Amino acid sequence: MQMLYNSDHYVVVAFDMDAEGDEHPATPQGGYEIVDKLARRGIFLNGAAAEGFKRGVSELVERGPTEEELDDFISGYTLLAQQPLTLH
Predict the structure, then answer these.
(1) How far is it, in rounded angstroms, from Cα 13 to Cα 45?
(2) How many angstroms separate the CA atoms of 28 and 18, rounded?
(3) pLDDT in tens, 12-49
(4) Interval 49-66: pLDDT, tens
(5) Which end of the chain is more exposed for a tag (fewer CB within 10 A), N or C?
(6) Among candidates 11, 66, 14, which has minimal Cα distance to 38?
(7) How far apart are CA 46 and CA 29, in angstroms?
(8) Contact between residue 67 and residue 7 where contact means Cβ atoms under 8 Å apart
């Protein structure tokens, strides 16, 4: 688990859960968790959705985005978020 991004509005965490010792797993199980702090909900992206997110972020990073540009990009994914956040 690695925190990739943390702004006033969002947190993005990467999970890499490939099978240990398997350099090319048939089904990678990693992904990205995105938390919308203001809406208090989150989403986990894996598979094709995670790859699309990764490509989009990489393209943004190449241009040297502002925090607002990154937040705008992430907000497109949080529209799908249905998991409410709760404190334990």
Answers:
(1) 10
(2) 5
(3) 999 986 645 455 555 557 899 999 999 999 999 999 99
(4) 999 999 999 999 999 999
(5) C
(6) 11
(7) 7
(8) yes
